[in-house]
C-alpha cells in the first residue's frame, strides 16, 4: 500500500515538475470557482441574482481553458450565443403571447423545429464549424431552454436577463484569470513549438550520423523509443493537430507585434507541414541504423568524415533558422554557405573514389583475375541457398507435422538472410541508401528555408546583423500532452 502511495505521489510530482504552468492553471481554476460560488454563498448576492447563479459556475468550468486564446474563443462564443438566443427567444415569446393557447403551442413547436434544424445545418458549414461551433451549440441550448420554458412560465424575460448576467459574470472571471493572471498565450506556444522542432531535427540528424559510424551500432538495434534521436523528431511528426489548434486559438488573442496588426499564425502551420516532410527523411535516416543488413564498419569508415561534415552543416543551418525565429529576425543571407556545398562535394568525391562498391565486380582488380567473377558469385549464392533448402527439407521430413511446421517458420528468415547477404553488392547498398537520404535532407532544406524567409517577410522580422550569434544549445520545452499545448517564452 505504501509503495502504491509513493508511486501516485511521484507521478503527481512529475506532472507538475514537467510543466509548472499546470499547477498555476489548476490554482486559477480553483480560485475562479471560489469567486463564482460567492454568488450562492453570500446572501446579498444570492438575493440579487437568484438560483440562476449556478450558470456562472457552469460557465467557469466550461470556458476557462489552459491558454488565453482558447478561453477567449469559448468565452466570446458562449456570450454571443447566449445573447442571440435570449433576444430571439424574447421575440418569439412576444409574438406567441398574441395568440391562443393551442396556437401558441403549435407556434412554439414549429419555431423550435425550424431554429433547431437551421442551426444544426449551419454547423456543417466549414467556416462556422471551425470558428463558431461552440457558440452555435450554446445558442441552441439557451434558445430551447428559454422558449420551451416560456410556455409554462410568465416571467421569461427575467429568466433570460438573470441567465445572461450570470454567464457574463462567469465569462468575465474567466477572461480576467486567463488574460491578466499569469497568462499562457497560444501564440507564444506555437512560436516556441516551431523553434523546438527545428532544434530537435538538427540534433537528431547530427546524432543519427554520429551513431551510424559508431563501432557499437549493431548492439543498439533493440533500443526502445527512449532513443534521443527518436525524441528529436517525434515532436515534429505529432505536431499537425497541435499546430492547427494553437494557430486557431492564437488568432483570437490580442496582436503580439507592434509591426503588424494580423500576425501570420497560419504561416507557422505551413512551416510545420514542411518540417514534417523534412522529418520523414530523418525517420528514414534513423531507420538505416536499425536495418538487419548493415555495411561493415571498415566500409562505413571510408565515408565517415564527409557524412559527419555534411550532417553538421545541415544541423548548423537548422539551428540558424531556429535562432532567427526566436529572435524575430531575418535569416543570414549566407545561410546556405559554401561549407555546405563543399561538404556535398566531399561526399560525392568519396562515393566516386570507391567505384568497386557500387558499380560491380568488373571494376574490382582483384575479382578481374577470374573471368567468371559475376557468375561465380551467383553460383555461390545458389549453392548456399540450395544446401540450406536441401537440409531444411530433409530435417522437416524427419519431424512430426507440428514440429516440422515450426522448423519451417524458423528457417525461413535464415534462408532469406543468407540469400540477401550473399548478393554481390549487399555490403554497399546500406551505405548508399544512407548517403542518399543524407543528400535528400539538403534538398528538403531549401523548402524549409523558403518557408522561414516567408514567415519573416510577413511578420516583418528585423533585419539580420552581422553581430547576431547562433546558439548551439537546445532546451527542451515542457510539453502539456493532455491539452496539446507547448510552453512558451516571451513574445514581443
From TrEMBL:
It comes from the Eukaryota. The keyword Transport applies. The keyword Repressor does not apply. GO terms for biological process: malate transport; monoatomic ion transmembrane transport. It is a multi-pass membrane protein. It is found in: Membrane. Its main location: membrane. Keywords: Ion channel, Ion transport, Membrane, Transmembrane, Transmembrane helix, Transport. It holds the Pfam family ALMT. InterPro entries: ALMT (IPR020966). Belongs to the aromatic acid exporter (TC 2.A.85) family. This is Aluminum-activated malate transporter 12-like. It comes from Punica granatum (Pomegranate). The lineage of its organism: Eukaryota, Viridiplantae, Streptophyta, Embryophyta, Tracheophyta.
